[in-house]
Amino acid sequence: MEPPHLFPQVSCQEWGQVLLRNKEWDAVLEHSLMAWRYTSDLPQWDTVNHNVLREQCYSILAAHGLAALQHHRPEASRGRQLLRRFKMAQLQSQLIVPCIEELQRIMGYTEGFSMDTK
After folding, report:
1. What is the pLDDT of residues 25-79, one digit of tens each?
2. Contact 30, 39 (CB under 8 A)
3. Helices in 2-75 by DSSP H: which ranges?
4. Where in the chain are the domains?
5. Do the beta carbons of residue 92 and residue 44 sit within 8 Å?
6. CA 100, CA 89: separation in Å to the nearest integer?
7. Alpha-carbon distance 96 to 91, whole Å?
């Protein structure tokens, strides 16, 4: 049996992987954002080592979100909604930034980014 403190990380990883395997791209994004909110409710400890689980969950969720965005182009209204939610998630952890940047790229946003002429 796994130690109880590993449960959130396992849940984050396993459910996201199931959705990715099934190519449920929008469901992956929704799962990542909802689990992000639950992860933010995990206790914040004074000792950095005790916060490793929280950071691992954020890292897993961001990776799943980014993978989904690399396969999925949400329609404009959904994209704006996701972008707003990703930016809210950024208040808990900067690990979501690659998802924000990828979504902005997909949606053709250029504000705050240098123009690449490659």
Report:
1. 999 999 999 999 999 988 888 887 778 888 999 999 999 999 999 999 999 999 9
2. no
3. 7-21, 25-40, 52-69
4. 7-107
5. no
6. 10
7. 9
What is the token pair recorded at 34? 């909802």
Question: What pTM did the predictor assign?
Answer: 0.82
Class of the domain covering 7-107: mainly alpha
DSSP at 3: -
Q: Which of 79, 77, 96, 78 is nearest to 33 (CA)?
A: 96
Between the CA of residue 29 and those of 5, 9, 46, 65, 110, what are the distances in Å? Answer: 24, 17, 31, 5, 22
Tokens read off for 96: 């979501």
98 token code pair: 């690659």
